[in-house]
Amino acid sequence: MFTTIGRLIKTTLQRIIRNPYHAIAAVFVLFMSFFVAAAFALILLNSNIILRYFESKPQVTAFFKNDTTVEQVNELKKVLADTGYLSSAKYVSKEEALKIYKEQNKKEPILLEMVTADMLPASLEVSATDIKYLPNLADILSKEKIVEEVIYQKEIVETLTTWTNNIRNIGMGIVAFLMITSLLITLVVIGLNISVHKDEIEIMRLVGASSSYIRIPFIFEGVIYGVVGSGLAVSVIWASLIYLSPVIAQFFAGIPLLPVSAKTMLTLAGAEALVGIILGFVSAIIATWKYLKV
Amino acid sequence: MITFQQVSKKYPSSTTAVADINLEIPDGQFLFVVGPSGAGKSTLLKLIIREEIPTEGKIFVDELDVTKLPNRKVPHLRRRIGTIFQDFKLLSKKTVFENVAFALEIIGRPESEIKETTREVLDLVGLKDKQNLFPHQISGGEAQRVAIARAVVQKPMFVLADEPTGNLDAKSAWEIMALLQKLNELGTTVIMATHNADIVQTLPHRVVEIEHGKIIKDSEIKGKK
Predict the structure, then answer these.
(1) Residues B116, B139: Cα–Cα separation, whole Å
(2) Chains A and B: how many Cβ contacts under 8 Å?
(3) Are A218 and A284 in contact, with CB atoms under 8 Å apart?
(4) Residues of A in contact with B108 (CB under 8 A)
(5) Is B71 an 8 Å CB contact of chain A?
(6) Are residues A175 and A259 in the same domain?
């Protein structure tokens, strides 16, 4: 049993080594598909983190003019509370804003040197008891004379949600297209290998090889292509992520995107390997059914 | 024993390859199947190993009804029958030893048995010294001996040879015949399709002559024409 499995694996590897260009073509196409799939998976995962980040933040932020006093702010707080829609209102003074800024840019001393508390506006971070009351609170804030600017988080969340949905739909479309292409190319490559080995297959049949003994190396071949293609894709994505971490972290300052945990990456690797095995297996089954008459 | 009972094989193009064949080949016999090209000799051999399925009639290999054999059992039938072809059908990327051992590998024999049996069989066909050479490094006669070694390494009861001397010079052809005779003397039933008249007339074996798919003469059945 184990001897036979060992021989089948040996036969598969010999065939792959003897026709490396076929194998490279199949692995390369699978790699591209799995790379794109992994990239979209990570983008979606991170866009959810970004969404949750914005959702956890105050829903409306009002930035005050420079001459606004704390008393004026407290008065405004009272107006907001009187509506009955207010869940919380947190005042962030200029000094506190500077502290936050310093924390976010602690690795960039040049940026810190140039900024003082005076340059940063004080703000009021407001949450509503229900998201549907946000327009009322935002409306009150924007009409206040002491308010310079109102940032309405709901719009950001809505825009992000729309983007996330679009990315998901486009990603699924592209990945589905690439997976079908990969399946067809793997099928053609295995079909070609069947054709290349037709003499060997004929002799195997004549000396009494069972149908499964003839078919299994081609099925192993498809599975190997799937595993190698997906494994390479996750490895390259992981390496790129490590290499690009500083750039990503700076771009999304404050949002806890990085590091992507090893658990997440291993889950992604496992999922892609599983899809790779299924894809390679299905390609090989179709190829042997279509091209291998034993 | 191999038995043909009213066997006919017609192709969809309505070509008749063999028609109404009745034939009994007892164990241990050496049988020549002769006839012009296209007479149906090769089809007759292919029917025995289920490369072809007859459109009518039955074929038995011992107790086994070949015509009713499920596809999954065909490999088991073929392990009982060694086959040799005019074009040798050797794998060019395998050595002489590997070409012979291959027939044992595919049926799951252990490595130690494969090594021992392959060496024994290569010794039998006189190629022990050339076991590490590749097919392109040996002569046609030697290549055919490798094919014979591969055909008998599974120790089959029957050997089918389709024009085994067709590509060989006279000396090599006689060497191959000597080898097939030796196998027959060891108890293997040999069925050989040929149109080498010299060989057929020289060796004292049963001869079945086929023309247009029909047996027109069987040296064992007197008076048949």
Answers:
(1) 25
(2) 48
(3) yes
(4) 1, 3-4
(5) yes
(6) yes
Asked if B19 and B28 count as a contact pair (C-beta separation under 8 A), the reply is no
**pTM of structure:** 0.74
Tens digit of each residue's pLDDT (9 = 90 or more) over A148-196: 888 876 677 677 778 878 888 888 899 899 999 999 999 999 999 999 9
The rounded distance, in Å, linking the Cα atoms of B96 and B132 is 6
Per residue in B47-79, pLDDT tens?
999 999 999 999 999 989 999 999 889 999 999
Chain A interface includes B178 (CB < 8 A): no
Q: Tell me: do A38 and A181 sit in the same domain.
A: yes
Residue of A2, A11, A207 to mutate, testing the B interface (most B Cβ within 10 Å of its Cβ): A207
A137 and A203 housed in the same domain: no
Residues from chain B that touch A199, judged by Cβ atoms under 8 A, are 89, 91
Which has the closest alpha carbon to B79: B5, B21, B158? Answer: B158
Domain boundary among A134, A152, A170: A152
Q: What is the 3-state secondary structure (H, E, C) of chain A?
A: CHHHHHHHHHHHHHHHHHCHHHHHHHHHHHHHHHHHHHHHHHHHHHHHHHHHHHHHCCCEEEEECCCCCHHHHHHHHHHHHHCCCEEEEEEECHHHHHHHHHHHCCCCHHHHHCCCHHHCCCEEEEEECCHHHHHHHHHHHHHCCCEEEEEEHHHHHHHHHHHHHHHHHHHHHHHHHHHHHHHHHHHHHHHHHHHHCHHHHHHHHHCCCCHHHHHHHHHHHHHHHHHHHHHHHHHHHHHHHHHHHHHHHHHCCCCCCCCCCHHHHHHHHHHHHHHHHHHHHHHHHHHHHHHCCC
What is the extent of the structural domain holding A252?
A: 2-54+158-291
CATH number at residue A69: 3.30.70.3040
